[in-house]
Design a protein that fits this description.
Length: 372
């Protein structure tokens, strides 16, 4: 066993010569980033930079007030940079591989000790003396390098999947602007689907009975069965059972989330609860999945934000007002083509997200095994 103070050295190199090094910040999840990216409007004109700290390749810095939320990183730039004097700076000692150390410092176990050894009330501060008291252990240099290489490879795979996900999401947004044009036959929403309110019975505290939807059930634009409510069985329950092709619509929410929807793509054994409207499309006029896609376009979401009734803490759209919404519906053949395109894109997006999740789970497992 050893302390972090045994394998790291604290330093404070000030920019006394006022050299115009690039200015960086330490973020929670992106490590060191230029301050121009973190704070777009940042203007350094007239700022005294001699108080800033200078940091070199493979040295570390953390925000003492935010280390417990991930604000700790290793600088990987080839040229020096400068950071705010508020950051705590340190470097690894000779027997420690800096890449291995970075992985260690990002483990859940270390985060637990950051909170345990920090000072303060609502906000925890961890300065170097208390940071240096945290106990840990380390293997030989060769083993450190092997561990670091493997974990870094997983990080690279996760980063690749993030890029794939970002590109797919950008592609979907771009297609949204071109595919859902103002073309087709005008319908009021109430003319092409049945709009119903949910069951308003008292919900149970225990996880027994019938599962019912809640506002948070669809907060991620899809059904999340981890965030449902429960009610006692009731006589007319089958009238509220959600079926494939139904659309849940958030008509009572904050303005930001008003109009949020989820498509019922399979039988979830779920019933329609309060504070969400249920749209059952007439599939002779509109394909349910097409209507779901249309309701999720920026044009429609902005429309709902405009027409909703705004109160102090929430907004709402009543059933009648929603039914008056005018939308353009193209021929069924066109709808089918659009749905096929989006289903292919969503399948690729789901696959990429699942692959990313597998890599993340593998990394967490390895971290638990390697840094006991």
């Amino acid at each position: 066993m050893c302390k972090l103070g045994d394998i790291t050295t604290n330093f404070n190199i000030r920019n006394k010569e006022k050299i115009q090094y690039p200015m960086y910040s330490v973020t929670n999840n992106r490590g060191f980033v230029p301050q121009t990216e973190q704070f777009e409007d940042r203007d350094m004109v007239g700022e005294d930079i001699k108080a800033y700290k200078v940091i070199h390749k493979d040295e570390f810095a953390y925000n003492p007030a935010r280390i417990n939320v991930g604000s700790i990183a290793r600088y990987e730039g080839d040229k020096p940079c400068m950071i705010s004097s508020l950051y705590v700076c340190f470097k690894s000692r000779g027997q420690i591989d800096s890449n291995w150390l970075m992985h260690l410092l990002k483990t859940p176990k270390m985060n637990f000790y950051y909170n345990l050894n920090g000072e303060g009330g609502v906000r925890v501060y961890l300065f170097y003396p208390n940071f240096a008291r945290i106990y840990t252990s380390y293997p030989g240099m060769e083993e450190q390098k092997k561990i670091a290489k493997l974990l870094s490879l997983l990080d690279e795979r996760i980063a690749i999947q993030n890029k794939v996900i970002d590109k797919l999401q950008s592609l979907i947004k771009g297609i949204n602007q071109r595919v859902f044009m103002n073309s087709g036959i005008n319908y009021k929403l109430v003319e092409i689907c049945e709009i119903r309110s949910g069951y308003s019975g008292n919900q149970l505290l225990s996880k027994k009975g019938l599962k019912v939807s809640r506002i948070e059930t669809i907060s991620g634009h899809k059904v999340n069965m981890e965030r449902v409510g429960y009610v006692a069985p009731f006589e007319s329950s089958e009238n509220y059972r959600l079926r494939v092709g139904d659309i849940l619509f958030s008509n009572i929410n904050s303005v930001e989330y008003i109009g949020n929807t989820a498509f019922i793509d399979k039988d979830y054994d779920l019933y329609h609860g309060m504070n969400l409207l249920r749209l059952t499309p007439n599939n002779t006029v509109v394909i349910p999945f097409y209507l779901y896609l249309l309701l999720n376009t920026n044009r429609m979401l902005n429309h709902f934000k405009t027409v909703c009734n705004k109160a102090v803490s929430q907004a709402s759209i009543n059933q009648t007002e929603l039914g008056k919404t005018v939308i353009q519906i193209p021929p069924i053949k066109t709808q089918e083509q659009i749905c096929e395109l989006y289903q292919a894109l969503y399948t690729k997006l789901e696959t990429a997200s699942h692959t990313k999740s597998l890599f993340q789970n593998q990394k967490q497992y390895m971290l638990r095994q390697m840094f006991i």
